[in-house]
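May I ask you to comment on the folded chain given beneath this request?
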Amino acid sequence: MLKLNGYLRILKRSNEGAPYLATVTAAATSNHTVLVASRDHVTGSYKAVLLDGAAPLDKLEGDVFELSELFDHLTSGDIVRLSPASGAIRVLYRRNSPSNTVLLTERCDHYCLMCSQPPKTPNDDWLLAEAFELIQLIPPSAQELIFSGGEPTLYGLRLVELIRHAKKWLPKTALHVLTNGRAFSDIKFAGSYAAVEHPDIMTGIPIYSDDPSHHDYIVQSRGAFNETVQGVLNLKKAGERVEIRIVIHKETLDRLVKTCEFIARNLVIVDHVALMGLEVTGFARYNLDNLWVDPFDYKDILSEAVTLLNNYRIPTSVYNHQLCTVNTDVFGNCKKSISDWKREYLPECVPCTRRDQCGGLFSSGSLYRHSRHIRPLF
């Protein structure tokens, strides 16, 4: 698991200012960038310098931090947030990652039983402001950005402006917006969202049951199902691409096939369905005894659900599952979906001939619970 946030030792501080964003480079020529240096002698004026070797501090201008070995994965093109007051560092963009997630808010109008990032109530609009700045630093060659939360649509039209901003600065970068979809039940908001006409955007929306009251229970919000379904319909009417996401656990498993049948019969116009394994962190860890099911034990139900969706020709992916825990008939639908920085494999996986195709396990939760049937495939 790669470390993406933490603290660095402050070697020299030029000011007590607010945190700032900076692009990592091995040969900085501007005071708007960070220099990662291992040379014995470094001189010049930089926004900040991350040192993993000795250097005479009196010849350096700007904030100087000691680069911990936990962050030795940083490379030119990565973008970080640095705090000169505390030494805090957070990696916001990794050049070598095929997709990067931009957290827009930790606030949410749902309280899902298995939420991997439990919502918080304080105003965090600064995250949206930071996203606008971050987009202007990201190279146009970036493959994909994921906008996530919390619930991004709580920003209303400001989210629309962010998407328009991304279209301007990163016209070739795909966007994936993760949302509960309820805000799109407002046809005017759905129209404003679609009016951006972003050339490559997918909106990922969860539907956890075909039974409205059951879906509402899982997300802990009354009326959520009806608004979510209406939101999906409004987005499709506006010509937007929509993905339906289903996290599989005890509360969604019994009706998984029926939920997929509901999608196939009523929402066949959607562009993708993702059947997702449980990430054992956040509320999922707290509610684990009430949610956990070994993926091996539901592999036949998963096969039935995938076959149903395949038969309706709805593009379908299986996320966050290990190949040794599913039937071979869904191998073609399994994707390596866990972000590289939090993906790991167990010792049992070392000799597996399919490891490169396997999604692996979440490093955030595999120590707490994983399938009893992890084994190498030959």
In short: The longest strand covers residues 44-51. The mean pLDDT is 92. The first helix runs from residue 126 to 137. The CA atoms of residues 9 and 66 lie 5 Å apart.
